[in-house]
Amino acid sequence: MEKGLKKGKAEGIIELGLDLGLSENEILDQLQVKLGISLQEAQEYLLDYKNEICMNP
Q: Using one digit for the tens of pLDDT, what is the confidence trace for 1-56?
C-alpha cells in the first residue's frame, strides 16, 4: 500500500478510535489489524497523529 494512502487510513482509524473512546492500546491493535503493520509502525502513526494535533489544534 502506498505510504500516503496508508497514513490517511491510519489517521481515519485513529480519529474513529478516539471518537469511540478506545484506549491507545486498542487503537494500536486496530492499526495493526486493518493496515497489516507492525506494532512499531502503529506507534509511529499514533505519535505522528498526536504531534499534528498539538501543532494544529
A: 687 899 999 999 999 999 999 999 999 999 999 999 999 999 999 999 988 877 77
Mention every residue, 6+ apart, whose C-beta is less than 8 A from residue 46.
Answer: 14, 24, 27, 28, 31
3-state DSSP call for residue 36? Answer: coil
Q: How large is the greatest C-alpha to C-alpha distance in the chain, in angstroms?
A: 29
Cβ 46 vs Cβ 29: under 8 Å: no
Alpha-carbon distances of 8 from 34, 42, rounded to whole Å: 13, 13
Q: For the whole model, what pTM was predicted?
A: 0.88
